[in-house]
Amino acid sequence: MNFREVVIAVSIALMVLLLAYVIEAGGLGPIAPQRLRELAASYLLNTYNPWNIIQSAQSLEAVTAIVWDYRGIDTFFETSVLFISIVGVSLLFRGYREKAGISNRGLSEIVKTSTKILSPLILISGLSIAIHGHLTPGGGFQGGSFIAVLLVLLSVVFSLDFVVERGLSTSRLLVLRSLGLLGVLATSVALLVVGLLTGVNAYIFQNMVREGASLSMPPWFLDRPTGGTLLFFNVFEALAVAAGLSLAFIVLSLRREEVEEALEKGEWYE
Amino acid sequence: MIELIDLALVLAGLALIAIGVFYDFIGAIGLLRLPNFYTRLHAATAGAIGGAVVPMIGAALVALGAEYLGPPRFFLAGAAFASSILLMILAQAGSHALARAAYISSEAVREPILYDALREEGGD
């Protein structure tokens, strides 16, 4: 350790300390603004407001209410962008089929046992984040990413054959992904279809009662709040994201035998 | 009586956190000074188990003893305890997988070495 390194370490430590002091003393302005802007205040007031259902989403989580109710169409197209990128990956690797019997035996017994203990916990916490999206922070995308991480972990620790043998091949994952997106689509037009059939006014992405549209998704299941469409959106989004991300992982973890086969098949397409 | 139990819980928790600080310090020094990958991995794992699992249990005890936090202290204690157990399962498995991969692929320098049990068994 020479003099130069000591000077660098001490100066970095001093900079962090002084910055912390300046922020603590309010030198860079308040860390969080003290008063809410009017827009934020109105969202906070209306996300769960049983006395003013016309403007409310009946969700206890403001972020989920904004993402899937107040600006639902925006989020639908975000989901479609992810879907299109998955379609792009599978188009790029057309002719790809995972081959059985060429993957290794996975990691050692110790890692396998720890993964066996943990995987149900990961699955349950992923599902819980997705299903409680309208109550707690999180939602469909986050829960789906959890479940995708579980699939990635299983395919690394137990080998890819283990995952494929249990029915999660790439073609079936693509079907699951499409089912999730179709579920999102069906939820968004459900009230519109009912309105058209019964001759009542309704909107797409309608959740609660709105001005001039008296249809509404059920805000309660027994004695539990569901946030109307938000519960369905979160569950379908979790399905779509879990299937899509693990599909991308499996396709991108190409093995050499598969590349050769895919190249042969790719020539047929041309 | 209740105050005494609370005080004992807080003191035990603080002692565990102090042990954690010690382990973290040792782990940091070991990571810098030890000669090869495997011994450094050992130091890092000591830092993870002794320096994260033990102080998290300590934090759970402190939260249980801190009466002024009200009922949320049970959530804090439960979350800290559960994550310490998860980390205890995970940290050792991760280090094991890293060391095994480094050994099998011969990527890491093995010297200085006293005894190699894996080589006598024939690799795997």
Give a concise summary.
Chain A has 270 residues and is mainly α.
Describe the structure.
The complex is a heterodimer of chains A (270) and B (124). Helices cover 65% and strands 1% of the residues of chain A. The model of chain A has no long low-confidence stretch (mean pLDDT 86). Chain A starts with a helix and ends with a helix. With 270 residues, chain A is an all-alpha fold. The relative contact order of chain A is 0.15. A two-stranded antiparallel ribbon of chain A has the order 1-2. In chain A, helix 4 (72-92) runs antiparallel to helix 8, helix 4 packs parallel to helix 9 (229-252) and helix 5 (109-131) packs antiparallel against helix 6 (140-157). Chain A has ten helices and two strands. Chain A has two domains: 1-32; 72-269, no CATH class. The radius of gyration of chain A is 25 Å and the shape is flat. Chain B is mainly α and 124 residues long. Chain B has one domain. In chain B, 80% of the residues lie in helices and 0% in strands. Chain B contains four helices and no strands. In chain B, helix 1 (2-33) runs antiparallel to helix 2 (37-65) and helix 2 (37-65) packs antiparallel against helix 3. The mean pLDDT of chain B is 89. The A-B interface holds A 107-108, 110-111, 114-115, 117-118, 121 and B 86, 89-90, 92-93, 96-97, 100.
How many separate helices of chain A? 10
- Helices and strands of chain A: which structural class? mainly alpha
C-alpha termini separation of chain A: 61 Å
Using only C-alpha atoms, the radius of gyration of chain B works out to 19 Å
Sequence of strands across the biggest β-sheet of chain A: 1-2
Order of H and E elements of chain B: HHHH
Structural class of chain B: mainly alpha
Largest interface: A-B, 9 and 8 residues
- Residue ranges of chain A: pLDDT <50 for 5 or more in a row? none
Number of strands of chain A: 2
Helical content of chain B stands at: over 70%
Sheet having the most strands of chain B: none
**Contiguous uncertain segments of 5+ residues of chain B:** none
Q: Assign a percent range to the helix content of chain A.
A: 55-70%
Shape of chain B: elongated
- Work out the strand percent of chain B: under 5%
Q: Report the major sheet of chain A.
A: 2 strands, antiparallel
* CA(first)-CA(last) distance of chain B: 58 Å
